[in-house]
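Ticket closed. Logging final result for Trigger factor.
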Amino acid sequence: MQVSIEATSTLERRLTITIPAARIEADVEKQLKDAAKNVRIDGFRKGKVPSKIVKQRYGKGIRQDVLSDIIRTSFYEAVTQEKLNPAGTPSIEPKSDVEGQDFEFVATFEVFPEIALADFSAAEIEKQSAEVADADVDTMIETLRKQQASWNDVERAAEDGDRVTMDFEGFVDGEAFDGGKAEGYELVLGSNTMIPGFESGLLGAKAGDDVELNVAFPEEYHAENLKGKPAVFKVKVTAVAEPVLPELNAEFFSKFGVEEQSEEGFRAEIRKNMERELKNALRNKTKTLVLDALCRLNPIAIPAALISDEVDTLRRQAVQQFGGDVAKFDLNMLPAELFKDQAEQRVRNGLLLAEVIRVNEIKADEARVGAFVEEMSAAYQQPEEVKAYFLNDKQQRRQIEAVIVEDVAVETLLAAAKVNEVNVSYEEAIKPAASKNADA
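Final structure:
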């Protein structure tokens, strides 16, 4: 087997592989002999069909099978010989295929980038820290009460926090537009679910009032034909209702899976959940900042094949998120451009983090696996059953180990960086960090 290699770009490689005719013919002859033992042709006993007839009938198909197998095995032999690390499936193009002559084909593919990690001590990380204060618990409980509120109709003017039921129709340039009409629509004032000016324009309205709202659609509005356009909404208020918050009692507590009978016990359970959420939020924020710094210090080329694969993964996740059946959904209906930046960022993060893990020989030890599962299962009502499931299910355990290995890699990088700790509020801490490398 002869192999020649050409670098057509930073990551793309073009292998020209030549297979001696003798190797092909030997494999074809062996396949023909095996076939002759089993084929049935009228006028001949099984196993007694002349090889010439077997070749006439099956030779072409057998040769194609042999070539397919040789292409697969010789490609693997070639990349091993040349010490290449392919990323994605190669594009195969036969160059010459004449019986009795050497067979030549070209394999074009991308390779994984070679990564020489920069010194991470040059990175500066602003690491947030926070605590759950009593006031944060109060705010959370109040939010939960509002979520479970009942509504009483009132005859007074609508106030912030009231629910307004209405019929409305919107007009742009004097013309009604699609999606701008509704009947019996319920809106909680102050929820900020409508465009700016809509909710504030209903403050002071009473049941039976007709209100005309002059507003403008935001420049970043999702409907292209409405972006930045001034609009008039004609509203008929049919009812105004005020919220009635539930009492803090056992019935209310049980709605959140809390068996505590006392308010003190409920508050303790809420605090515990908030502290768990806070810990995860801070860990994820720190990870995002570390990965951003890692990417800035290590600019690398990324194989297009890996980005394409990741785009498909994100497409599947999007379909599942909205309750779709991935098996029945044509993923190409979702434009690749919607996911390309995120896919590229995830691939870049993955490649660099994998190199950190390899260089530092990081593995998931049993103690961390146990602690991770213990913490995760504490959020469930039957923690022992959940713990047993995660520890004994091979796939779940592998996923947990992968998370731990990444966490240790981030901790390793963080230990090498210049870290500035900043204390923030609980509300600030649980806001997700936006990556600065989305367009990198």
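DSSP finds eleven helices and eleven strands in the chain. No further action required.
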